[in-house]
Specification:
The chain is 44% helix and 35% strand. With 140 residues, it is an alpha+beta fold. About 16% of the residues have low confidence.
Length: 140
């Protein structure tokens, strides 16, 4: 009986130890990694047309917030006329500069809009501004 209890206890301790290993969700540890993650997740949310999530990556009332609202309106308008609109952003972040609670990120963005029998492709290089709100970076 003691041997069974010892075996069960050993298995439980081992299970608790292994559950703490890096098999779970990986969270960025540096501010630069957090900034890159916010920008990437912002564009993933746009690709999924999850507008409330997209806007959650922005400081409310900021330039990026209103640009996101305008993009949402444009996609919704296209959806009214063409029924299905696919938007795909591909982003490459190549520089991140951090100044205390503010940061700048230089990015290249490729954009594909597909609707009805048409498609548009655009590429641009731009700089995104970010602000640290609490412990979270948000787009300005």
């Amino acid at each position: 009986m003691k041997r069974k209890c010892l075996l069960i206890l050993t298995i439980l301790v081992l299970a608790i130890f292994l559950s703490g290993c890096s098999g779970g969700i990986v969270t960025p540890s540096t501010d630069e990694a957090k900034i890159e993650s916010v920008i990437e997740e912002y564009f993933v949310a746009i690709n999924n047309q999850n507008w409330s999530k997209t806007k959650s990556y922005c400081v409310y009332g900021s330039e990026r917030y209103y640009a996101t609202c305008e993009l949402e309106d444009m996609i919704n308008l296209l959806n009214q006329y063409y029924n299905i609109v696919t938007i795909t952003f591909s982003v490459n972040i190549y520089n991140v500069y951090i100044y205390g609670n503010y940061a700048l990120a230089d990015i290249n963005v490729d954009i594909w809009y597909v609707y009805y029998y048409s498609s548009e492709v655009d590429s641009t290089s731009t700089t995104y501004s970010l602000k640290k709100v609490g412990n979270v970076w948000k787009l300005l």
